[in-house]
Amino acid sequence: MPKKFLITGFTGQVGSQLVDFLLKNTDFELIGMMRWQEPLNNISHLIERINRKDRLSIFYADLNDHPSIYRMIDLIRPDFISHLAAQSYPRTSFDIPIETLQTNIIGTANLLEVIKQIRNKETSYDPVIHVCSSSEVYGKVKKKGHLNEDSTFHGSSPYSISKIGADFLGRYYGEAFNLKTFVTRMGTHSGPRRSDVFFESTVAKQIALIEFNYQDPIIKIGNLDSIRTFQDVRDAVDAYYKLIIAADNGLIKPGDVFNIAGKEAFNLREIVEILLSFSERKDITYKCDQNRLRPIDADYQMYDNTKISSTIDWEPTITVKQMLLDLLNHWRNQIKNGNIPLNR
Predict the structure, then answer these.
(1) pLDDT for 138-181, tens place per residue?
(2) Where in the chain is the domain with CATH 3.90.25.10?
(3) Which one of 17, 149, 226, 328 is least enclosed by Cβ atoms within 10 Å?
(4) Angle at CA 6, nearest 5°, toward 243 and 42?
(5) In which element (H, E) is residue 37 found?
(6) CATH superfamily of 4-190+232-260
(7) What CA–CA distance (Å, rounded) separates 190 from 52?
(8) Phi/psi class of residue 307: alpha, beta or left (left: φ > 0; alpha: ψ in -120 to 50)?
(9) Could you tell me which residues are beta bridge partners of residue 287?
(10) 116 CB-contact burial (10 Å; exposed 0-12 / middle 13-18 / buried 19+)
(11) Which residues form the NAD(P)-binding domain (predicted)?
(12) Residues whose CB falls within 8 Å of the CB of residue 244, separated by 6 or more in sequence, listed in order
């Protein structure tokens, strides 16, 4: 009988890409957790399969509603759980700090506590649980250098602080209760379906809007001095899958944590210039918009991949330039098909 794989937040960019990967590379039965009012843009190509229950189904639940989480885990009893659901936008978290902290910390605690309770009731139930943290936990770095899993945390936004909480929870439930948890701290990952609230995606979206004459040829940007690694989301979900299988095979100790980062590093000004090089419009300029600046910026994100490389056979395969071109073409196709995004 095929194993069951639950993905929280599966309508997001990463969740939907993980579903695509698992449908192609496994025989798992996939269950996507979502709130009933979430947009379906990222999974529109999967709706026919969902309707036919062809290895893919939806379970409506909310991280902040404990009974719905208990009902979901108790009914499904998934063998694997990839916990991706979150309020995941750092800049937005300054505007909605309480919701960010509630969803990302208490929501993660709800999920892990439910799994612990059900396992205590039925000791044979022992799923692998992937807790998605973030490289943002390192925050505003004081000492430059490649950051490893033992580097100091420095919260630089409500989002960053919320992911520090989720990170500690993932480790705590593994170490204290021997749940088969592991935590990932993914660096900046982008590509098709990336939300427009993230830097490289809002730049790509604005270029596409300009090309279709929906925006004046001026891109509004925030801080361009940040330095970070980039990798394609399709490489990211490959890493997640391989870590989950490694954990299932006992190769990862409960509560372990992994940095995952691309090998190519850029400052954000270079990212803008690469995206502009893909456009035939040569009149496009860019300027700083004060509303896009963070009160504190995580302005240095360079990570050490030694640990993950010694645990699984994985490295990024899609170049950053290809990733950015695919992202720009994603927005071009959205606009071409009449899905005009907000100019924000």
Answers:
(1) 887 766 667 899 998 988 899 999 999 999 999 999 999 999 99
(2) 199-227+263-301+309-336
(3) 149
(4) 95
(5) none
(6) NAD(P)-binding Rossmann-like Domain (3.40.50.720)
(7) 30
(8) alpha
(9) 220
(10) middle
(11) 6-324
(12) 80, 82, 128, 130
Measured from the Cβ of residue 335, the count of other Cβ atoms closer than 10 Å reads 16
Q: What is the CATH number of domain 199-227+263-301+309-336?
A: 3.90.25.10
Phi and psi at 138, nearest 5°, equal -75, -20
Amino acid at 4: K
Would you state the structure tokens that stand for residue 84, as one six-digit string?
Answer: 């991706």
| Amino acid occupying residue 131 | V
The residue type found at 315 is: E
Q: Are 240 and 184 in contact (CB under 8 A)?
A: yes
Band of residue 336 on the pLDDT scale cut at 50, 70, 90: very high
For residues 279-304, one letter each, b for 16 or more C-beta atoms within 10 angstroms of the residue's C-beta and e for the rest, the string is: beeeebebeeeeeeebeebbbbbbbb
